[in-house]
Amino acid sequence: KQWYQRRVLFFFFFFFGRIMMDDIQTSEEVAFVVEDVTNIIKESIEVTLQQASYHHSKVGQWTSNVVEQCLRRLTGLNKPFKYIVSCIIMQKTGAGLHTASSCYWDNASDGSCSYRWENKTMYCITSVFGCMI
């Protein structure tokens, strides 16, 4: 009888332990990973702006390119999220810029991150919000 009980316990822990590990892997695969999103933002900005100098007439196209590049890369991750991407480009003139955001959502599944990039002539601040579907 002891042998049977041990075997049942072994299979119970083995079976349910595997299920729990599969759930952990699945949740990591669909999580909003701030490091991955930050890298996407950084690369999207660098591809668009590289060695550019601030020019007022080009800012509209630059912001559109950064946002579209981010969205393209984010949707390529194939994660169950709706994404919101915003981009601000500001000339370096010594003026101040203050920005804030607030979200009412599920902290366990949704996420956000921002990245600030700069060169000698401008700042680019890009934010991404991900809401799990």
Determine the strand fraction and express it as a percent band: 15-25%
What's the arrangement of strands in the largest beta sheet?
1-3-2
Helices and strands, in order, run as: HHHEEE
Specify the biggest β-sheet: 3 strands, antiparallel
Q: Uncertain regions: pLDDT < 50 for 5+ in a row?
A: none
Write out key terms for the chains shown:
single chain; alpha+beta; 133 residues; three-stranded antiparallel beta sheet
What does this structure look like?
This protein has 133 residues and is α+β, with helices and mostly antiparallel strands. It has helices at residues 2-30, 34-49, 59-75; strands at residues 81-91, 111-118, 122-132. It has a 3-stranded antiparallel beta sheet, covered by helices on one side. Helix 2 (34-49) runs antiparallel to helix 3 (59-75). It is globular, with a radius of gyration of 22 Å.
